[in-house]
Amino acid sequence: MSLLRKKGGFAAGAGTRLRSRARQKASQAAPLAKSKASQAVPLAKSAGAAARHGAGEAAARARPHVRRARRWAAPRIERTGKAMQEKVAPQVSAVMTKAARRLDPDAKARRRSWFTRGAALFMAAASAVAVILLRKHAAAPGDDEASPEHGTGEQAAAADDAAKVQVNGRVSAS
User: Fold this and answer.
1) Quick check: is 78 in a domain?
2) What digits encode the pLDDT tens for the residues 128-146?
């Protein structure tokens, strides 16, 4: 029959027996733990000393090898540094400068070639000459006489007075 099936839950005195047995085992374990701990402290100290001694020996053995490795690596690293300065650094610098120019929002205006400038100057001069020739032709003295559009000279003068063209191209009737 189970202990939980009885009226009181546990058999009478079962809880008391368990507590007393636990106290007895704890009182036996405490001195044993103290003795083992007192033995472990010197062992830990000696293990620490042995580890320090071993590390010191390992460092002493490695020291000449480390110096030899440093002697071997130093000139190679120096040579690599010089090569980087002379070859890679200018290329990186050029790339960075090019990127900075692309990023610059205030980039200078694009310079036009001499050919473009010359063509623009020629076109401006040709336009000015054409305007002068057209005005000269329009103000020629022989035009006041009979013209086929307006008839006689008097009729042409009357037509000119009636429709005067302003500078902006508008025609004003007076």
Assistant:
1) yes
2) 999 999 888 887 665 555 4
